[in-house]
Specification:
By secondary structure, the protein is of the alpha/beta class. The chain folds into 2 domains: 149 residues, Aspartate Aminotransferase, domain 1, CATH 3.90.1150.10; 233 residues, 3-Layer(aba) Sandwich (Aspartate Aminotransferase, domain 2), CATH 3.40.640. The protein is built from 15 helices and 14 strands. A 7-stranded mixed sheet has the order 4-10-9-8-7-5-6, with helices on both faces. Strands 1-2-3-12 form a 4-stranded mixed sheet. It is globular. It binds 4'-deoxy-4'-aminopyridoxal-5'-phosphate. 4'-deoxy-4'-aminopyridoxal-5'-phosphate binds next to helix 5.
């Protein structure tokens, strides 16, 4: 059997292309943060994770440019060998301080952080316990480990207890959840999850890719609930609020030391370039100096949620600037995406299997730098499209 047979027979994407509603891999000619240019047309970006709008902040850009001038464009090697700069260690200290943990460790992406951290911690006799809405990188990190994987329905702490109860006492246990869930924009129920974890001697890791810079005054979901000390490991990415590329895991020194010497995605992959590290340092400084950005992105999120709900859209349980518009059908999701696109609003369509059937949605997300005029335009386009396609 030819290994490529499945490739030739794969028609899903081509069928959507033929209908003229293919929404992926769209090459942008310009990206100014809140506005992008596609095919000569200017659009409002409501599908980015640039929550604080820092990718175009003059101080962040300047820091990256200066780092290229000083260090060149690449570290050409792993942190483990030739690829560690003093700058990486400076970022690790800043991050540890920012999230209130003893130490932090930088990986080259958030995906690699989850792959490396979870697989390093989960040995043959251990169990990793995941929320069913956890990000793919958490699932893949768990699959790379040699232990057992258990899952519980989204934020269902009673079910989590049943899972924990069923695990023999001599097994190590790690619960991994998103802090802010990437599709739903809702929060992990840490106030109930943490006591349950303690009761059954389980450790807790929170992926705060979408919480950092957004909730807890920008310090993330654990801070939001005043539970920094109760969450054992805080993970996040640099590719969202921190306006760069990379990821980190933060926790107690001995745990970080172990991960540093056993995580294969860290040891066998090149470190982030100096420009990315310098951008993170500058972004953290801006977040400290300009807390009003965190306030602003949350105000915008609230306005969008209130207005879309009032129009009759189903926005699920979002409490953050990630606002899903649940459409509930693949084709209608693509058609509504296209109608918004043609009216100058860029959002992300999410269909099955990324979400379960009936939950297909338009993922919209907002930036501190969106103007009131842009938000008004987005809302009026949503109303127009919602009516035209009989969604509201
Ligand atoms: N975790 C979550 C919850 C994410 O949403 C993402 C990225 N979308 C990642 C991890 C991976 O981060 P990165 O883009 O840095 O690989």
């Amino acid at each position: 059997m030819d290994i490529f047979k499945k490739c030739r027979e794969y028609t899903d994407a081509k069928e959507v292309m033929e209908k003229g509603i293919y929404p992926y891999f769209l090459p942008l000619a310009e990206n100014e943060g809140t506005e992008v240019v596609y095919n000569g047309k200017r659009m409002i970006m409501c599908g980015s994770n640039n929550y604080l709008g820092l990718t175009t902040h003059p101080k962040v850009k300047e820091a990256a440019i200066k780092a290229v001038e000083r260090f060149g464009t690449s570290c050409t090697g792993s942190r483990f060998l030739n690829g560690t700069l003093e700058l990486h260690e400076q970022v690790e200290k800043e991050i540890a301080d920012f999230v209130g943990k003893e130490e932090a460790l930088i990986f080259s992406t958030g995906m690699q952080t989850n792959l490396g951290t979870i697989s390093a911690l989960i040995s043959r006799d251990d169990v990793v316990i995941l929320d069913k809405e956890d990000h793919a990188s958490i699932v893949d990190g768990a699959r790379l480990g040699y232990g057992k994987i258990e899952r519980f329905p989204h934020n269902d702490i009673e079910h989590l207890e049943r899972v924990l109860k069923s695990i023999p006492e001599d097994r190590g246990r790690l619960i991994v959840v998103d802090g802010v869930f990437s599709m739903g924009g809702d929060l992990a129920d840490l106030p109930h999850l943490i006591p349950m974890a303690r009761k059954y001697d389980a450790r807790v890791m929170v992926d705060d890719a979408h919480g950092m810079g957004v909730v807890g005054g920008g310090r993330g979901t654990a801070r939001e609930f005043g539970m920094d000390n109760d969450v054992d490991l805080i993970m996040s990415t640099f590719s969202k609020s921190f306006a760069s590329l990379g990821g980190f895991i933060a926790g107690n020194s001995d745990i970080i030391h172990y991960i540093k010497h056993t995580a294969r995605s860290l040891i066998f992959s090149a470190s982030i370039p100096a420009s990315n590290a310098a951008a993170v340092l500058a972004a953290i400084q801006v977040i400290r100096d300009e807390p009003e950005r965190v306030t602003r992105v949350n105000i915008i999120g609230e306005t969008i949620r209130t207005e879309l709900r009032a129009m009759g859209f189903n926005i699920g349980n979002s409490v953050t600037p990630i606002v899903p518009v649940i459409i509930g059908d693949d084709e209608l999701t693509f058609r509504s995406w296209k109608a918004l696109f043609e009216n100058g609003v860029f959002v992300n369509p999410v269909v099955s299997p990324a979400v379960s059937a009936g939950q297909q949605l338009l993922r919209t997300s907002y930036m501190a730098t969106h103007t009131d005029e842009q938000i008004d335009k987005v809302l009026s386009v949503f109303q127009k499209v919602g009516k035209e396609l009989a969604i509201i």
